[in-house]
Amino acid sequence: MTTRRTLLQAGLLGAGLSQVPFTATAASASVAADASAVGSPDVDDPRFTLAVIPDTQYLFDQDRGDSAPLVATMKYLLENRRSENIVFTAHLGDVVENALASEFAQVDPVFRLLDNHRAPYSVLAGNHDIDSRTNDQRGDSPYLRTFGPDRFRRMPTYGGTSPGGYNSWHVFRGGGRQWLLLAMDWRPSDEGFAWARKVIADHPRLPVILTTHDLVYADAGPAELSEHGKRVWEQLVDGNDQIFLTLNGHFWPSGRVVKQNAARNDVHLHITNYQDRYYGGSGMIRLYHFDLARNIIDVVTISPWILAKPVSRRTALEQGEIELTDDANRFSVPIDFDQRFAGFAPIAVRPSRPAARLVVPGTVAYWRFDGSAMDRVVDHSGQGNHLTPVLLSADGGPVPSDEHHPDQPGHGSWLFRGGKRPARGGYLRTADDAPLNALTFRNGYTIEAFVKLADGDHAWQGLLSRMGTGANAGKTGGDPSEPVVNLGFSGGLQAQWAVYPADRNDIWTNWGHEMRAGEWFHLAVVNDGRVSTMYIDSSPVLRNPATRSNGLTTTGEHWLLGANHYDRTIEQSFAGQIGELRIVNRPLADREFLTA
What we know:
- It contains nine helices and 31 strands.
- It is of the alpha+beta class.
């Protein structure tokens, strides 16, 4: 198979030829982007995009090229800067084919489309941009005169260049944090590598994306280091844990591989290049869609030039080049960013907060499990609604744990080891004379808790319940054997708030979505005196009843935490962890939740 790696490595093809005037057949680089369509990205949105432009050399090949595809790419990046939240663009080298001043004169105005709208980008020299026999100490060149320090000085993301001017560093912001991007020459010298290591050392908390021209290739199967790539890995990547992603061109076909560095962390190495395809790659770009909330990078490959053509004018060949959807060109990279960057940029643990600060007006019960004695859980509200444990089996009582939700005020929890058939584990209950037992919450209420569910069959387990059935309270609607109040989980781990309102004869139910076992979440139910709304992680769920209801029915009996009952029989206790639980005798806004 003929690949980029098997062709001439020499980049100075035709360097001695006369500089032939460029005669593009499509739109020229002087075409300005529609300024009205250009917006600024939201650099604090956890979803942002890094655009990558690989080898464009065939578009600028003496009199044989055409700038139109790259012009279309630049216009796409500008016109979609806001909608795709494009925060930075990186070119991977081989900007032109023969390193001629006339070719750089052709490409210069194309990049000025980005300059004119202050859209930040980086460029690096590939082997076709300079004399490929030299390293980054080569001195002056048409490339350096076009893409040297003078071009980038006014760019807010530009940090500086190595002494020879061929390596540069940039810091851009995306997802509410800063990212360091290195744009390294085709052949960095030892001094160039030392410079790059110092740049990284000077930014010890920033994740690093390394862009260069030659690093990995993918003739068949997973990508692997080229001979020069081995040097880059040894001198720069392996010992610098901050480098988590590398991007290079030069070779084809596209590919990727994951290698572990010296710190035993993953480094994702990607090769992207389309010059071998129709029309020199048709100005194809890679869009790296980062999503810090979902811990993933979604990668797509498109040709804005072909996309911009009317459908009626696209040839059959062009239709197949609009977007590449094979596994090498459309894929997702799962990365737990906080965990991957923890070695150099650990996330500060939110400090614990004193219980007294969380006793807001109207608080009638506030139970925490950070350091609670095992024979009694104190009610920090001051209302005297303390909890005592009840065992269903000799070996199944709750046990203390240091685990907790990251936004939880108290740093601790209890692990409940509940089960059923037969009922086992343990739960907590209020005293028979606790003031909470009599409350009907006619003015509304807020109940919130931090929870982590356990794996296994724990269908219809209860988190919080009131002893007493609908029948005990004189209710005849629904199933009167159900408890008058129950906050629990279905067999599918859907949160459920099922209650007999004080002013209704039937059960009113709020349903959440299915939760995942083993993950902490915050659960809240708020009633404003008319309707009840369930929140999961401060987001309202869909299935909240709109019919008005008021208050909670009570039989004057105790509350249960970590269990529910049917016809007054406790069939199982809770399985999972409970961090803390607060009950307030009024509705709270989400900004007043314990997570705030």
